[in-house]
Every structure is written in structure tokens, then in C-alpha cells.
Please model this.
Amino acid sequence: DAGITQSPRHKVTETGTPVTLRCHQTENHRYMYWYRQDPGHGLRLIHYSYGVKDTDKGEVSDGYSVSRSKTEDFLLTLESATSSQTSVYFCAISESRQNNSPLHFGNGTRLTVT
Amino acid sequence: DQQVKQNSPSLSVQEGRISILNCDYTNSMFDYFLWYKKYPAEGPTFLISISSIKDKNEDGRFTVFLNKSAKHLSLHIVPSQPGDSAVYFCAATLNSRNNDMRFGAGTRLTVKP
Model:
């Protein structure tokens, strides 16, 4: 298994509070991704990173920001959580951006915004 | 706008029989297709893929078929085993890039002993 750790695994927070989810990898892969999984939608890309301090938006980036100050850590921040951000969040890594380098996913963080 | 669709939320098959999971897509520019498998409380894991220049790719019990004219992808599992019970996600990419990947909503496969 790829060395990917997501923390926390579960979180309940109130609307309007800031939340930060952490993804830590031990594979030294250049590319890291944050996805959310919702019923009826599959996985949707929020943000991705192609190196330290290099990030870009994905399909559903509104309301989210990311930071990558070290190769091994990719943080996802919800500045002011809303109920629509209740979801399961997955971090993924890959050696390259090309498809012959499949994504390896962490085990997810279940976030509930009340 | 769901560009990748898995119209069957669930599928149940008997152990030893064939499982066929289907996927349709709308964007003819997709050039690479993948299947991921997900067990409860775990992240998805890569299963098999196919390039748009091919129509079939096989890996052990798993075969993926691509019909570009119909914009249709299918995953065949033969023979099905109880350990195959999981949610299967179909995915498609543009420009062969991971950051341009679109996932279907998933199909839950149950293989009964």
C-alpha cells in the first residue's frame, strides 16, 4: 500500500468554522490531489499540487484552499465550513501527471458540517 | 454535468458467474479510461485501464472493453468471487492527465457465495 495518511479520519464541525484536513505521504511523489466523494457524484477533484508551493484548482474548488509547503504534506482548508461541504474527502498521490501513473488514494476523512 | 455515467447503482451476481459493470461517457475527447475499486472505509484502488486507441485490455480475471462509437466502457470479471464485492468507479481523462479525470458515481457489486 502506498504510504498515505489522512487526518483526522472523522470530524464534526459547525457551520462557519474553519477546518483543515491533512494528507501526509511517505512515497516522495510529486503530484498530490484532494477529492470529495458524494452520493450520485462519484469523486470530484477539488485542488491538486504538482510540487511544493505549486497548486491549481480542480472541478469543485469554490470554498476550499490548499497549501503544500513540503513534498510530503498537502493541506486542504475550508475557511468557513458550510453544510454543502459535508462529504468524504480523499487525498491521492501519483508519480506523474500522466495516466500511466495511477492515483493512489488515502483512506479518507469523513467531514460532517452541522 | 455528469460526463461519466454509471447508470446501475448496484449489481448482484452469484459466485463463479460473470460480472459486467457498465459505464457511458459523453465527451468524445476522453482519451484514457480507468476502473477503480473501493472497499468500505478505504480509499479507491486502481484496477485496470485502457487507452482510447485500444478496444480491449485484459488483466487476469478482469477485462475492460471500450466501444468508442457508442461511448461505452465495460468491465468484465470472470469468474466473480466474494472478495470482488465492492464499489467500482469508472473514470475517464482528457489529455491523458490525472488532473483532468472525471469519475462516474460508482456501481456497488455484490458477489454472493
Observations:
- Chain A has a mean pLDDT of 94.
- The radius of gyration of chain A is 13 Å.
